[in-house]
Amino acid sequence: MIESRLYAYGKDSIRQVYKEYTLKVSQSTKNAIKYPICFIHGGAWRDPKNDYNDYEKLIRYIDNAFLVKGNAESRSAKIQFFSIDYRLSPEVRHPKHLTDVLKCLKSISKKFDVTDVTLCGHSVGATLITQILERQKILKEYGIPEEQFKPLPNIRRVMFLDGIYDVNSLLREYPSYNSFVGEAFKGNDYVSKCNMISSGTKSQEAAGIYNTLERIVILHSSKDQLLSFQQPEEFVNWLLEIGVDESKLKGCYWIDDFGKHNEVYQSPKVADLLVDDIISRTK
Fold first, then answer.
1. Bridge partners of residue 17, in order along the sequence
2. pLDDT digits (tens, 9 = 90+) for 202-226
3. CATH architecture of 2-282
4. Is 91 within 8 Å of 17 (Cβ atoms)?
5. In sequence order, what are the residues at sequence separation of 6 or more whose Cβ sits closer than 8 angstroms to the Cβ of residue 271?
6. Where do the catalytic residues lie (predicted)?
7. Could you give the residue numbers annotated as active site?
């Protein structure tokens, strides 16, 4: 059984909300889970069809997987997942998508006393995860005080689902995608400031940020009709080039048939992989 409830974290838009999911699980599953997962949807920063409900089906698959892997134990314990919504372009532009998600994470931290999380993002939701990790640099670039978003939970693990990582590389491969990138950013200069990989940064600062993570999980569907393997391959290579510990990526880069681009975040295969990853945290 899954219980859910909607919460607001802002007053500027009806999209400044998040959904809390409570799942009943066995005590052994509860003991294996260190951190709740916060899901961030994609949609090219602009598609109103993508929202906090995107992960509803995936969470139900996860619930069923927990039931199977829990060996029919009594489901007497509870765990929480959160699905985050944020304002879209052209109503807002970068870095407003990021600051919305940071406000949401602050709300989750304060309301539910959450100190550590795993972030899971699809498509531009993956881009947002890189920006959350690199927030100090980005907020400073735009003169936004980081203090207003504290307390934030510690980001312990990340899961990228058919993500966009290097926006400049994306536009070189798919020039027509400038139609939505141009709505999300003010110009090419701002696209380069999207995140470190987009700007070509290869520094100790970048390595330090990603080495704080326990694990970096990267999934990409072989049937994705909107993104080729170039994005995940370049991201993995960039992580290794900047000096990220290979152990954080070991066994965490999966290419499989998870469906088309907008089917990945509803895939039962993805749910099984996430559950296996959650349970493996005790190993």
1. 8
2. 889 999 999 999 999 999 999 999 9
3. 3-Layer(aba) Sandwich (3.40)
4. no
5. 58, 61, 62, 64, 65
6. 123, 224, 261
7. 123, 224, 261
Cα separation, 146 vs 182, whole angstroms: 26
Instruction: Please give the Cα distance from 15 to 96 (Å, whole number).
Output: 12
Tokens 């304060």 correspond to: 110
- CA dist 205 and 214 (Å) reads 17
Domain ranges of the chain: 2-282
Q: What is the DSSP string of 26-89?
A: -HHHHHH--S-EEEE--STTT-TT-STTTTHHHHHHHHHHHHHHTTT----EEEEEEEE----T
In eight-state DSSP terms, residue 214 is: S
Residue with tokens 């880069």: 253
Structure tokens at 278: 């959650």
SS3 9: coil
Report the distance separating Cα 114 and Cα 151, nearest Å.
10
- Which DSSP string corresponds to 152-208? --EEEEEEEES----HHHHHHH-GGGHHHHHHHSSSHHHHHTS-HHHHT--SHHHHH
Q: What is the pTM of this model?
A: 0.95
Angle of helix 96-112 relative to helix 124-133, nearest 10 degrees, comes to: 70
Alpha carbon distances (Å) from 123 to 154, 257, 264: 22, 16, 10
Task: Note the pLDDT tens digit of each residue in 2-23.
Answer: 999 999 999 999 999 999 999 9
At residue 279, the pLDDT reads: 66
8 Å CB contact between 244 and 210: yes
- Alpha carbon 15 to chain centroid, angstroms: 17
